[in-house]
Structure formats: C-alpha cells, structure tokens
Amino acid sequence: MARIEAVNEQTLIVYLGDKIDEAVAAEVNHAIFQIQHALGNLITDIIPSYHSILVSFDLSRTDRFDIIKRIKQALATHTEAVSNDSDKVIVEIPVYYGEDVALDMADVCSKTGLTADAVVKLHSEREYRVYAIGFSPGFAYLGSVDDAIVMPRKSTPRLKVPTGSVGLADNQTAIYPSSTPGGWQIIGRTPLNMIDWDSETLARVNVGNRVKFHPIDRDAFIQLGGVLDEF
C-alpha cells in the first residue's frame, strides 16, 4: 500500500517501499506511468527514486487533497497496459579500467583482497538496473554490485572527479557525467558523454533501464574520444 506525504503546498512524495530491490523498483517504474496516465497535465514534474516518487502538481488546477485522491485511485487501477519498455532497454557502456584512470583500484584491491582483473570481471559481468537519476544531471545510480566489491565511500571526497569516471559506493556503481566533487571509489572511465541535452531527462540512461559495462583497452578509449589528461 502506497504512503503519500506532503513536502510542500504543491509537492508530494509517494512511498512504495522502504528498501532497494528489484521488486520495489519495478513497482516505482510502473507507478510513474499509472500516475502520468491518470493525472495528465495536472502534474508539473515527477521524479522517481529507489522506493518513492516525488510528484509536483499545478496548484492553479487542483489541490493537495484532490491530487492525493487521484493518485490513490490511479495506483489502485490494475492496468497492465499502463507501462513502458524502459526496463527492457539495455545500454552498453564501454569502460577503460587502466591504472591511469582507475584512481582507486589499488585501494579497492587492498580492501577486497582481489586482483584488479578480478574486480574488473566482477564489475563488468553483471547487468545493473538504473534505480535513480540525481546528484547532478545524468548521474545514474546503478545496482547492485557483486558482494565481493561492495565498497564504502572515500573518507575524504575528491574536490574534482574526472568526467566519465566509473565508481563504486556501498552496493552501487555509477558514472560521473561531469567533473564534480565526489567520494565514490573510482575504478575506470568511459569515453561516452552521459549527458544527452536533447533528452527530456538530460541523461543517456533512464530509470528502469539496464546498464552493462564493456571493458575496452587504452587505444579504444582514446579512439572513442576518451580523455586521459583532464587534470
């Protein structure tokens, strides 16, 4: 049963669970389209997260009590047709895991007891779900990593993480779409631009998509536009 709480006069949070897992993420993904389908242009913004959805609405056309009633009715409607194919989309991301870009690989190996090759294999052999987009435009939170490479965030974050850096934090992995401060453990870098300015979400990937990392060598990284000397 969804729990709905007010954030402010024209924003609500719809809670669909309290943990990060595939079932809750699928429910969030489905609920987004149920709400959009039922409420249409009453909604001004809708932002999914791991187990909740932030919903902003047009206060000139409805009010909090009406919108809560409408959301509950939408979520109670069992319409299998109200969905999308975002969870069927698989996005392949090339990653160079070389030591000149894998800034924290030595620490990851030390903490896990694994070789760099083993870390790369575990990181790149599984498919990740996009659970949320946030922190900065295009920053996708992906999960979950293999238990053997679960890593805490750095105790002292970097002031600047190079664009395209691929990192680990807790049981998640992510790609820095731009150069920003950050505390994730960096194990590689992609040459791809993760920000798509022509996309409604600004991101190359969207919530519900699947991401598969594909290891590439240094030459391929450079040929694809990768930058090694950003700093």
Automatic annotation (TrEMBL):
<dbReference type="Pfam" id="PF02682">
    <property type="entry name" value="CT_C_D"/>
</dbReference>
<keyword id="KW-0067">ATP-binding</keyword>
<keyword id="KW-0378">Hydrolase</keyword>
<dbReference type="GO" id="GO:0005524">
    <property type="term" value="F:ATP binding"/>
</dbReference>
<dbReference type="InterPro" id="IPR029000">
    <property type="entry name" value="Cyclophilin-like_dom_sf"/>
</dbReference>
<feature type="domain" description="Carboxyltransferase">
    <location>
        <begin position="2"/>
        <end position="205"/>
    </location>
</feature>
<keyword id="KW-0547">Nucleotide-binding</keyword>
<protein>
    <submittedName>
        <fullName>Allophanate hydrolase</fullName>
    </submittedName>
</protein>
<dbReference type="GO" id="GO:0016787">
    <property type="term" value="F:hydrolase activity"/>
</dbReference>
<dbReference type="InterPro" id="IPR003833">
    <property type="entry name" value="CT_C_D"/>
</dbReference>
<dbReference type="InterPro" id="IPR010016">
    <property type="entry name" value="PxpB"/>
</dbReference>
